[in-house]
Amino acid sequence: MFTDSVVQVASLPDLLRLIAVPVFAWAAYHDLRTRRVANATWLPLYALGAVLLVVDVWTAFSAGGATQRLFVVRCVVSLGIVAPLGFAFWRLGGFGGADAKALIALAVLFPTYPAYYLPWGTLPLEPSLLGVFSLTVLTNTVLVGLAFPLVLAVRNLVAGHRSWLMFVGKPVDSTSVDAEYGRLLETTSGRTRGGLDLDALRMYLRWRGTDLGALRSTPDRYRDPSSIDETYAPGDGTVDTTRVATDGGAVVADDEPSGDIVDAVDAPNLEVSDDAKYDDPWGAAAFLADIEGSAYGTTPDQLREGLDVLVERETVWFTPGLPFIVPMFGGLLVGLLYGDVLFVALRALGLA
Q: Where would I find the Prepilin type IV endopeptidase peptidase domain in this sequence (predicted)?
């Protein structure tokens, strides 16, 4: 009886595909909070997609004719175009690794449209003519993502922050910017979309065994690269609500200031404040040469500019960005419930 009722709603493969919804919901929440998603998140979806793909291949080739040909075309588009797009965008720097893995998971899991039969209609309501569901999710994702600048602008207007930057960023107190994810939109000479990555800022602070408050209180000391006498593990730049661990791993209690932080607070300011007086102001080049990797593509000049801004200004603009998995989750939900928004828009304009 239960099996019969399930078959009336959807095929078993299409029902199993709905497992992607809670997985993407969890990934979107975690990505928004930490900008990190574990690789293991996608492995169950890859495995499930591979199994369901075998079942669909068997079904389509058993039917033969037009059904078989359409299935092959849709699989070629999903696995041969959508999945490689995720890898290509990652290689070009447009995607993070988790974003690429998420898109590949969708390409494997949804090469064709699922169908869910409800008493009042069949979901999705508006499938595209091509019938490649992973492509629908991708185009929906782009459209959902386009709403983010508008939401950000409205929030800034309500808060009284009026600037051309209000569509891409928001202001924050310089003393707390290291608790945010995103990228600075300011340099000492003006505005920029390529400012200091805040993950790289946290890595730098942990590498020096200090915090942003100490840096701001005695900037001349920290500009001098000769003040670096000991360095620590920088981590990966994720936000940590505890104080900086100056031993590379152990958490320092709030009532237990660490050596370099104490020195930064107690040491008198040096009379030198001009970056030009040092070969490597702030020890920026030394930091990037010492760590593994590139600190999210940060250059010494970007790091120096960002640090100069943070010690000179009380408020800075930064772009929080929107993790791509968040609109991708939205695009998945819209696709399952409604269908292909872009295709409907193009059809309304007589272009599809």
A: 19-147
CA torsion sign for 211, 216, 221, 226 is positive
**Helix ranges restricted to H, 18-42:** 20-34
Single-letter amino acid code for the residue at 113:
Y
Q: Which parts of the chain fold into alpha helices (H)?
A: 2-9, 12-17, 20-34, 43-63, 65-77, 83-91, 97-109, 133-158, 198-208, 212-217, 219-223, 259-266, 284-290, 300-312, 325-337, 341-348
Euclidean distance between CA atoms 285 and 282, whole angstroms: 8
Same domain, 295 and 329: no
Number of structural domains the chain divides into:
2
Tell whether 143 and 6 lie within a shared domain. Answer: yes
Place of tokens 């078959």: 7
* Inter-helix orientation angle 97-109/325-337, to 10°: 20
**Is pTM, for the whole model, over 0.70?**
yes
pLDDT band at 89 (very low <50, low <70, confident <90, very high): confident
Q: What is the pLDDT of residues 3-24, one digit of tens each?
A: 444 557 889 999 999 999 999 9
